[in-house]
Amino acid sequence: MFSKLKLSLVTAASIAALSAPATAAESTNFMIVNGVPVNSIDEVPWQVALIDGSAVLRRQFCGGSIVSDTWILTAAHCVEGAAAADIDVLAGTLHLSHGGQRVEVAEIVIHSNWGTTGISNDFDTALIRLAEPLTVGEPIALADDSTPLPDGMGLRVSGWGAIFQSGPGSNDLLLVEVPVYNQADCVAANGASVTDQMICAGFVAGGSDSCQGDSGGPLYTIEGNPADARLAGIVSWGWGCALPNRPGVYTRVSTVEEWVTKTMAMK
Ligand code: 4AZ
């Protein structure tokens, strides 16, 4: 209902190729796409799940990041058309099935430029204000213009989304490392639909990626301790998942950081 499936140009053969592990040992960690389970929520304390607010069962449809004890940053396409009552936020757990704090949503604020530029997924950014403060988790600092994100720098992305294109999600939070992709190469690979408000990450050869259901979740720096991490991107879209020369495309957080800070300060 909320998560947007961007395309289905993927063949059974390419799925088989992506999901066929090279060795038996690798078969246990073929997740997010090609990720590993997070060992402790303390490694990604800002990660939240957006879940169906009307169901007792925790049906996850997108991710998000804690930016303060009452605000979650996510993708506009995750919450577009939704009412506050449609969504709950689940924080402080690796597992969709149990643990953590489930909080209701007070307000959804979509980026003022979303839907205004004529380019799909431009400014794919929204803030969620919580009905009560979180007592679990930790906020992540936002990347700004002074945060270096050179080509090839290793970032991490995490979520409960599909473990291969059109595949099932994961009950346990998964993460995968993806390098910053050259912007001009990403534009060339994806056409003019990649704007300055987007940052791409992935290997030219493919293989590791975010995928459906990871949308809205964090792409973050991994130098130093988790407390030093910066939110570089918001999972937004991609041509399939983990395909060669089709890096995942993320909202470039440095380009929405000012809007985020102002919006939070206004309420
Ligand atoms: C999606 O549809 C989606 N490979 C999210 C991330 C990526 C592709 C699709 C990146 O939510």
Q: How does this model look, in words?
A:
The chain has 267 residues and is mostly beta strands. The protein has two domains: 12-19 and 46-139 and 256-266, Trypsin-like serine proteases (Thrombin, subunit H, Beta Barrel); 141-254, Thrombin, subunit H (Beta Barrel), CATH 2.40.10. The protein is 11% helix and 28% strand. The protein is built from four helices and 14 strands. Strands 1, 8, 9, 10, 11, 12, 13 and 14 form an eight-stranded mixed beta sheet that branches. The radius of gyration is 17 Å and the shape is globular. Residues 1-30 have low confidence and may be disordered. 4-(aminomethyl)benzoic acid binds at residues 3-6, 209-212, 214-215, 235, 237-238, 241, 248.
Number of strands: 14
Beta-sheet strand percentage?
25-35%
Query: Any idea what the CATH superfamily of the largest domain is called?
Result: Trypsin-like serine proteases
What is the CATH level 1 assignment of the largest domain?
A: Mainly Beta
Poorly predicted sequence stretches spanning 5 or more consecutive residues = 1-30
Based on Cα principal axes, name the global outline.
Answer: globular
Distance between the termini: 28 Å
Secondary structure layout plus pairing:
Blueprint: H1 12-19, E1 36-37, E2 47-52, E3 60-68, E4 71-74, H2 76-79, E5 87-91, E6 101-110, E7 126-130, E8 141-142, E9 154-159, E10 174-179, H3 183-190, E11 198-201, E12 218-221, E13 230-237, E14 248-252, H4 257-266
Parallel strand pairs: 8-13
Antiparallel strand pairs: 1-10, 2-3, 2-5, 3-4, 4-7, 5-6, 6-7, 9-10, 9-12, 11-14, 12-13, 13-14
Bound molecules: 4-(aminomethyl)benzoic acid (4AZ).
